[in-house]
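Question thread 4412

I'm putting together a teaching handout and wanted feedback from people who do this every day. The idea is simple: show students a protein as raw sequence, then show them the C-alpha cells that encode its fold, then repeat with a second protein so they can compare. Below is the first pair exactly as I plan to print it.
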Amino acid sequence: MTHSCILSRGKEKIVRVTFESETAYAEGIVPSGIIEKQNGFTEDEVKQLELYLKLNQDDIMKKAKEITGITHWF
C-alpha cells in the first residue's frame, strides 16, 4: 500500500491510496473509503479494501500529513 500527501478536491481534503500486487491494482480515496479504479481484484477483495480504508482513515490521513506535496518545493 502506498498513499499520496493530502490533496484538495474542491473543498474536501483527500488522500489517494494504492494497493498493488503482482497481478492486481486498486486505487481508493480516504476519507470516503471508496475504491475508484481496480483491475485484478475480486468483488470481495474490493469490499475488504474499502473496509480497510474506512477503518484506517484517521491513521492514513495522519501519515499523509507528514508528506510534503510538490507545491511546497518551490
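The second pair follows. I'd like the answer to focus on this one:
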Amino acid sequence: MRRLVTLAGALLLSTVPTAAARAQTAPSDSTGFRAGQWGAEFTLGTGSGAASGVGALRFFSDRRALLLDVNGRLTRASGDAWLRSDESSLNVRIGPRWYRPVKGHVLQYVSLGVIASHDRREIPVFSSSLDPMTRSTTKSFGAGAFGEVGGSWMVTPQLSLGASWQGVVQYARQTQDARNLGGAIVVPASRSNVWNASFGSLALRAGVFF
C-alpha cells in the first residue's frame, strides 16, 4: 500500500513540470476579461483644450464590451470678466469596443459609436459700433460618429494604463449672439448648421475592472 501511494505521488509530481512548461509555451489568445464583467475608465486629455472624463465598460465576452462615457473641459482665463475668453464643452459617447491581445500584458482595442456634444464659447467683441463691454456667445449642439484606436497595459487583472487616439465627425446646430454689460442683446441671434471634423485627439486612460 505504501509503495502504491509513493508511486502515485511520484506520478503526480512528474506531471507538474510538464503542465507548467505547456502553460509557458502555449500562446495565449485571451484578453483576461470575461462576459458580465464591469469596468470603469478614467480619461485625461492631452494638449490645449483637451477633454477629460469618466466612463463605464460592460463586457459581453473576453474581447467585446459596450462603452459609455462622459468627458468635458472648461477653460476660463484669469482677469476681467468682460475681457477674457471662456470655453466649455461636454461630450457623451456610446458604442462597442473590441479588444485583442498583442503580447504579454499588452492589449489593443478599437471603439466605434455615436457621440453627442454641447459647446459654449464667450469672447469679448471689440467694435466701434458696439458697447465696449459687449461679449459674443456661441452655443453648439452636435451629434455624429467617433472612431478610436488605443492600447492598454494590464498592470494587474484589475488595473490598466494606456492611451488612445480618436477621430470625430459631427453635424452641429450653432447659435450666436452678443450682449452688453446689462445682459441686453445688441446683436440678434444668428443660427447656422455646420459639419465639424477633428482628428488626432490623444488621451491617456486608466481602467479599473471588477
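Top answer:
Good format. For the second protein you could add a caption like this: The helical segments are 2-25. The longest helix spans residues 2-25.
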